[in-house]
């Protein structure tokens, strides 16, 4: 199957547009980490994952676990675009009575399979869910998205030992290496060193994506990960926090920001220009 | 007293036998062990049934998360560690991946309170019930009797939701016969009485029954309730019994802060306050020692219950 980069890049822009509309409607939110993972979500939901938005609980569906649960707006934008719920629902993010809480909740949002929010915990939940799929021979995949700052949590490494020991290769883990956490860079706060070598030492097949905001590179890594059955795979995405919107990508710290109506207008103009470039090429 | 007998099996043997039965009857039942199979008597089960029973390693946080993930896919996992590590070590995982996620995990914490004996203060859970009582929808069971343990294991496996069951691994005491019927959330009146209500759980039920015998010789007719379900607490029974006797003593193998005594007090103060006294550790850490020594040191023997009963009766009668 050939990869339609143009289609997926446009989908990633649609996701970014809706992330920003969502956050602007509330006035502030987790901008940086939502934007850095938008391209991977575009590839997963636009091309890779087996799912049916009309039947969100389909037995053999692929599953996504957003362990960096604060990137909820990115997943919500993606799910709305796929038709899990109306786009207008995005405007209710974090508002009273919403089905879209800041951190993903399986009981509130159609298309969300596991509740996360306490960093590190999504890794074990994903491992358990994928183990059940493996034992039952369902043949589906679980895609786990972990932040690089999240790797500070010991539970990530407990679950990595377990996943490797049990060869839960139907679980594919992404590390979103945008290099920044809430209070600064990962290098300043608790240097992670080589993430690939760490996971390799834990028994993983570690794949590097040099540009984790390039949809084709992400897609190729997923295909390579699926081809490896002898060990679980981790895809280390070298991304930019705030990717795809110039002023956030250049900011020293864009973890959580306020976004005004004026900001949104500028962003929408920028994204429209990018759409034109993609269509033109 | 006659009612308490020495059973044939330690509770850990009852546990592994019951678990095997559950595993044989339902392929969705799983058992995750944090490397205490030898201590819990489950090594054979893990060796024989690798599809359903796993020693996951010394990683309680991951164990609870994996169990929660399995349960979302329809598995029914039991997880075990010593009570300390099955609760406070992984409290946030139990809260978020378990309770908040509305998962279906049966947490087993062995050797509650003083039954940890020579493992000492580091391994002596006297706060486990308090921690989990504040977790919404969590069910909590304190058990030290084989027929009751079998019931709780079977019943919780069939009921969706998070639960925590604590029991002493090596206890062989029995005080129910096999015909005894139990119900989750319903205390058991082990002895009817009219002068005072003693509400106990776990191994303190033995002490309460012994105290009732001593009280009888003093002309005091004590009602003894086994409140094995600490959450949800049986408010109806507490209020009915306290309404009849007008004086209550609780006895728990736990800190008096946040456990059975607190749960009973909360029911009484909101509906029908009566003189009350709580038996349990009084905000102390545990320490190494045999059960008899520790019960005495922490003021948790039948003798201490007798003194507490005299105190609440005198307070009640002074109010008249």
What are the main properties of this structure?
A: 281 residues, alpha/beta, Rossmann fold, globular, B: alpha/beta, 2 domains, 7-stranded mixed beta sheet, 42% helix
What does this structure look like?
The complex is a heterodimer of chains A (281) and B (320). Chain A is α/β, with parallel strands linked by helices and 281 residues long. Chain A has one domain: 3-Layer(aba) Sandwich (Rossmann fold), CATH 3.40.50.970. Chain A contains eleven helices and nine strands. Chain A has helices at residues 5-26, 31-36, 38-48, 72-82, 121-135, 154-165, 186-190, 195-201, 215-227, 246-249, 261-280, and strands spanning 28-29, 63-66, 142-147, 171-177, 180-181, 184-185, 205-209, 233-238, 257-258. In chain A, the strands form three sheets. A five-stranded parallel beta sheet of chain A has the order 2-3-4-8-7, with helices on both faces. The two termini of chain A are 21 Å apart. The model of chain A has no long low-confidence stretch (mean pLDDT 96). The mean pLDDT of chain B is 97. Chain B has a seven-stranded mixed beta sheet with strand order 3-2-4-5-7-6-12, with helices on both faces. Chain B has a five-stranded mixed beta sheet with strand order 9-11-10-13-14, with helices on both faces. Chain B has two domains: 5-174, Thiamin diphosphate (ThDP)-binding fold, Pyr/PP domains (Rossmann fold, 3-Layer(aba) Sandwich); 188-319, Rossmann fold (3-Layer(aba) Sandwich), CATH 3.40.50. Chain B is of the alpha/beta class. Chain B contains 13 helices and 14 strands. Classes of the chains: A alpha/beta (281), B alpha/beta (320).
């Amino acid at each position: 199957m050939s990869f339609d980069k143009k289609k997926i890049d446009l989908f990633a822009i649609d996701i970014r547009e809706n992330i920003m509309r969502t956050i602007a409607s509330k006035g502030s939110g987790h901008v940086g980490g939502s934007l850095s993972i938008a391209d991977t979500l575009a590839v997963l939901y636009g091309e890779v994952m087996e799912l049916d938005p009309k039947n969100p609980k389909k037995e053999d569906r692929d599953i996504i676990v957003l362990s960096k649960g604060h990137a909820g707006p990115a997943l919500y934008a993606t799910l709305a675009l796929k038709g899990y719920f109306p786009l207008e629902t995005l405007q209710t993010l974090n508002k009273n009575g919403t089905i879209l809480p800041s951190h993903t909740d399986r009981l509130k949002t159609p298309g969300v399979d596991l509740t996360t929010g306490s960093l590190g915990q999504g890794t074990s939940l994903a491992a358990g869910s994928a183990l059940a799929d493996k034992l039952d021979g369902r043949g589906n995949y679980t895609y786990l998205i972990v932040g690089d700052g999240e790797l500070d949590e010991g539970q990530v490494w407990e679950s990595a030992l377990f996943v490797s020991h049990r060869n839960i290769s139907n679980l594919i883990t992404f590390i979103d290496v945008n290099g920044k956490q809430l209070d600064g860079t990962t290098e300043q706060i608790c240097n992670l060193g080589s993430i690939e070598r760490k996971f390799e030492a834990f028994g993983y097949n570690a794949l590097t994506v040099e540009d984790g905001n390039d949809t084709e590179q992400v897609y190729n890594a997923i295909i390579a990960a699926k081809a490896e059955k002898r060990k679980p795979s981790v895809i280390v995405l070298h991304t930019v926090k705030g990717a795809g919107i110039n002023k956030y990508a250049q900011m020293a710290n864009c973890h959580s920001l306020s976004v005004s109506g004026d900001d949104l207008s500028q962003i929408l103009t920028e994204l429209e220009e990018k759409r034109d470039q993609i269509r033109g090429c | 007293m006659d009612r308490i007998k020495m059973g044939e099996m330690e509770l850990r043997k009852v546990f592994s036998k019951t678990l095997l039965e559950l595993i044989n009857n339902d392929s969705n039942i799983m058992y995750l062990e944090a490397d205490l199979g030898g201590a819990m008597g489950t090594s054979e089960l893990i060796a024989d049934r690798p599809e359903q029973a796993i020693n996951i390693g010394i990683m309680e946080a991951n164990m609870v998360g994996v169990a929660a993930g399995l349960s979302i896919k329809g598995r029914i996992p039991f997880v075990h560690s010593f009570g300390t590590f099955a609760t406070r070590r992984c409290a946030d995982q139990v809260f978020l991946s378990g309770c908040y996620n509305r998962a279906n995990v049966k947490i087993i914490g062995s050797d509650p309170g003083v039954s940890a004996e020579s493992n000492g203060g580091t391994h002596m859970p006297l706060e486990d019930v308090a921690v989990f009582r504040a977790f919404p929808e969590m069910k909590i069971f304190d058990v030290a009797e084989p027929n009751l343990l079998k019931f709780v294991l079977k019943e919780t496996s069939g009921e969706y939701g998070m639960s925590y069951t604590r029991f002493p691994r090596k206890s062989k005491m029995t005080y129910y016969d096999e015909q005894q019927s139990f119900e989750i959330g319903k205390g058991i009146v082990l002895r009817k009485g009219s002068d005072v209500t003693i509400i106990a759980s776990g191994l303190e039920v033995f002490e309460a029954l012994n105290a009732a015998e001593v009280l009888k010789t003093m002309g005091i007719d004590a009602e003894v309730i086994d409140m094995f379900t600490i959450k949800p607490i049986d408010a109806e029974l507490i209020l009915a019994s306290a309404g009849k006797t007008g004086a209550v003593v609780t006895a728990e193998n736990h800190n008096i802060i946040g456990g059975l005594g607190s749960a009973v007090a909360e029911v009484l103060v909101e509906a029908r306050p009566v003189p009350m006294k709580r038996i349990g550790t009084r905000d102390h850490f545990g320490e190494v020692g045999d059960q008899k020594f520790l019960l005495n040191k922490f003021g948790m023997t039948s003798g201490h219950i007798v003194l507490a009963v005299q105190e609440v009766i005198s307070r009640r009668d002074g109010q008249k």
